[in-house]
Specification:
By secondary structure, the protein is mainly β. It has a single domain, classed as monomeric porin ompg (Porin), CATH 2.40.160. Helices cover 7% and strands 66% of the residues. The protein contains 1 helix and 13 strands. Strands 1-2-3-4-5-6-7-9-10-11-12-13 form a 12-stranded antiparallel β-barrel. The longest helix is centred in the N-terminal third of the chain and has 18 residues. 25% of the residues are buried. The N terminus is likely disordered.
Length: 267
């Protein structure tokens, strides 16, 4: 099913790239004079028969400018089941405030909370601060890099899974804290008015665990406000407790609604 979905997204992207006018008129859904930008996406799939699986995911990103400050809010969640038994359940929240020293150079203060039932950690939360730089900032391409330090708190838990992948039992261990190096890279490129590619990578490295995440997405517009997005993400914990696997992957096909502001990306 996922191969067919990616193939469909690829076909849409090629079609959009061939037919779109590179000198197209400005996006009617662009609101560059607004102080807000937002992105909402959701996806769901279900298969019957022998496997009988279902999966759903949702995401909300909001950005707001207040003078020299830019505030970013993000929330996403995923749920999956196999034969009526929960086999994936996670949600993540993040807030970040950027203070712009110049048009490209900024200082950030961020907080992130992860609750992934199958990661081997009851939760991981990090408060961090550092510096960022918008290395590329054009209408078609944007690239930002940031790095800093933070304080992390996490609670490991021991998991026992059944043959399907559902949790039979879990035992929470003591809460632990450490200092982490925090870094992220975000890239966005619009091939034309209809097709956009985004990629991001983030790392939180410390003595207790190093968590890295990678996200790729291809978005093809259907209308000025609605788009189809195919995405792939990987999250890796270097030191998961016994019973948990280090890598978690997610492939999605989503319907996207975007209140766009070309001067304030909501990614």
């Amino acid at each position: 099913m996922w191969k067919q979905a990616w193939a469909a997204a690829g076909t849409l992207a090629v079609s959009a790239g061939v037919s779109a006018d590179e000198t197209a008129k400005p996006d009617p859904n662009d609101h560059p004079d607004s102080t807000w930008a937002a992105r909402v996406q959701a996806g769901y799939s279900r298969t019957g028969g022998t496997t009988d699986t279902s999966a759903g995911n949702a995401l909300l990103h909001v950005a707001h400018v207040m003078g020299d400050w830019k505030v970013l809010l993000g929330f996403d969640g995923v749920y999956g089941s196999t034969k009526g038994e929960t086999t994936a359940q996670a949600w993540h929240a993040r807030v970040q405030g950027d203070y712009n020293f110049t048009e490209r150079f900024y200082w950030y203060l961020a907080y992130r909370y992860d609750d992934d039932r199958f990661s081997g950690f009851a939760y991981q939360q990090v408060a961090s601060t550092g510096l960022g730089y918008q290395a590329i900032k054009t209408d078609a391409t944007k690239l930002s890099i940031q790095a800093g330090v933070g304080q992390r708190a996490l609670r490991p838990e021991l998991l026992t899974l059944d043959e399907i992948g559902g949790i039979v039992s879990s035992t929470e261990l003591a809460r632990e804290t450490d200092t982490v190096l925090d870094g992220a890279v975000n890239f966005e490129h619009a091939f034309n008015a209809a097709t956009k590619f985004t990629a991001s990578a983030a790392v939180e490295e410390g003595d207790l665990n190093t968590m890295t995440s990678y996200n790729l997405a291809l978005q093809v517009k259907m209308t000025s406000q609605l788009a189809l997005s195919a995405g792939y993400s990987v999250v890796r914990n270097s030191k998961p407790p016994p019973g948990a696997v280090p890598n978690a992957t997610l492939t999605t096909v989503n319907l996207v609604y975007e209140f766009k502001n070309s001067k304030l990306p909501s990614e």
